Amino acid sequence: MAIASTCKNGKKYLQLSAQGSGKPSFPQLGEHDQLIMRRQHSGESMSKTLVYFLSGIVLLVVAVVYWPIVHANFVWDDWQSFRDYPWLTQGDQWKHAIFRGFNFWTYYFRPLVVAFFALQVHQFGSTPGPMHVVSLAIHVVNTALVGTLAWQLTTDTPLPFKGRTWVVPLCMALYGLHPALIEPVAWIGCQFDLILTMLMLIGLISNISIRQQVIRAVSLTIFFFLAACAKESAISFPLLVLVCDWILIKQAGKQPTASALRVLIYRNGLAYAGMFLSGCAYVIFRHWALGSIAGGLKFDSISLFSRLQEACFVYLHYWKIILWPTADLSPIHPVSIAIFDTWSLVSFAMAGAALGIPAFGVYAGIKHASPLGLIILAVTVALLPVVHIIPGHFELSLYHERYATMAIAVMCAMLPLLYRPLRLPSYHAKSAVLLGSMTAASLWLALSIVTIRLTLPLWSNDVTLWRWALAKNPEASQAKSSLLLAYIKYRDFDAATKLADAELSDPTPCFSCMVGIAQFATANDDISRATLALQRMRSSAFLAKEKGQLQVYYLLSGRLLMQENKLDAAERTVRMGIAVDPANQKAKELLEEILARKGQPGSPQ
């Protein structure tokens, strides 16, 4: 082996380049020095073996803790994604669904994961168990990738080699057992988030480990494009690469910011250009598939200051999810954006904190290479796509645990950067600090394991899921209507009727609940409940705002009139529904049924 000595941060590092048999020899050194070097090499080999062993244990624990989820059923929109609709199950429809129309999406474009869903559906036959195993396997892989990234980021830090042996598995455990990740692991539809995280982590690892500039640039270009085709949140990937590059440059030694920027461009300028071209290619690909870049995205018409307050509110809640997730776990987090129309002392304080945290990260991380600042900066960058900076209406909830998956990954991988040698007056004081840290980490992990095992059963089927959601959010219309549909799906008609009556007696019932009740009642020839639900729908202001819901009202009213044998009125009502959206095939089928009853078979046009 050849030995090259370099100096970094005042310390000598030996770079060994393998030649021949791979056994270390140390020419031009004294016998005593050679013995020391061999012992050091042997110690590092043993430490590497230990870190592999401990990491394997962590991965096994993560798999065992999450294993009950493989017995769970489909939940939420898994049913329409993988079983109830023919997108992926019948013939070659999946070839079209990969690019457009899957799950009634108009603005999401995620061909890579939709294609992976199609593969699973064709392989497993729309059976949830194997698909849950796939989700768990991806999560275990991501846990290993977090450990790999943590190991690489701490190569040139004050953390001793033996310390890395223990700290890296700890980082893996903190990520793999983080309670906020229950949602993406337990919900098959969240493989978007898991695969996005996997591709971005592999990209960050490649950025550090690949020394050849061209190969590194090509790798980052490819991984960025694949990540973008997995989920739109990949837009944060180039900025995360930039943060990692800054860490590497600052680890090489103190230098002025301007000089560091020049080194940054020199080291990875080709990769930055490649990722820019990759982003352009993705935009063209997306436009080809959807017909536009934004698709059917609806934009909220709120003021700039309300948008700022909303973004600050969401940003702070994501920090809460990352640091203390057990306090507010729920499948939904409905928050009315009307609360952001006015400012109060609390909202000013939240805005100050939300703006101050990333400002500190930028200043401390860029100016002073502070590990804490760099971690805050990386987490903030990972959260940028989901803090509502873009004025689009994506979800009924303002935030979700699954959206923090990548932010949690980069934070856990970067935690070893915080290590600093303890300079305490006595050995006992140092031991007390270490014991306290180990105890705190152990308690956090124990609480996380308990939380995971208690929460996983709530994700086992739609009934338990939406009962939980309704218990956490008693006024949430999404929870009420989804629970009603879950009762109907599992044929618990007594529970469905009880919930329907409770909603019908509510002076301010939710519109979606009335739709579900009307559908349930007409399907069971329950004329009185169907009539009452339709009356509530007709008096709702929501009906005038949503064209799609207006058609639903006409079609349900037409079906009820048909059941009452008022065929002329039923025909007129359904024709009004068809006029709202002539492309609706189910509306035409209902009209054909009415005409057949009237003895007028033929075209419903």
SSE topology sketch:
Elements: E1 2-8, E2 11-17, H1 31-66, H2 78-82, H3 93-97, H4 111-124, H5 128-153, H6 161-176, H7 182-186, H8 191-209, H9 213-230, H10 237-251, H11 257-290, E3 298-299, H12 304-323, H13 345-368, H14 371-383, E4 392-393, H15 405-414, H16 427-455, H17 462-472, H18 477-489, H19 493-504, H20 511-523, H21 527-538, H22 542-545, H23 547-563, H24 567-580, H25 585-597
Antiparallel strand pairs: 1-2, 3-4
Helix pairs in contact: 1-5, 1-6, 4-9, 5-6, 5-8, 5-15, 6-15, 8-9, 8-10, 8-15, 9-11, 10-11, 10-14, 12-13, 13-14, 14-15, 17-18, 18-19, 18-20, 20-21, 20-23, 21-23, 23-24, 24-25
Features:
single chain; about 600 residues; mainly alpha; Serine Threonine Protein Phosphatase 5, Tetratricopeptide repeat; two-stranded antiparallel ribbon; 4 strands; disordered N terminus; TPR-like_helical_dom_sf; transmembrane; membrane; Tetratricopeptide repeat protein; transmembrane helix
Number of strands: 4
The profile of the biggest β sheet is: 2 strands, antiparallel
Portion of residues in beta strands equals: under 5%
- What integer value in Å does the Rg equal? 29 Å
Structure, explained:
- The protein has 3 domains: 44 residues, no CATH class; 399 residues, no CATH class; 127 residues, Serine Threonine Protein Phosphatase 5, Tetratricopeptide repeat, CATH 1.25.40.10.
- The chain is built from 25 helices and 4 strands.
- Strands 1-2 form a two-stranded antiparallel sheet. A two-stranded antiparallel ribbon has the order 3-4.
- It is mainly α and 605 residues long.
- This is Tetratricopeptide repeat protein.
- Keywords: Membrane, Repeat, TPR repeat, Transmembrane, Transmembrane helix.
- InterPro entries: O-mannosyl-transferase_TMTC, TPR-like_helical_dom_sf.
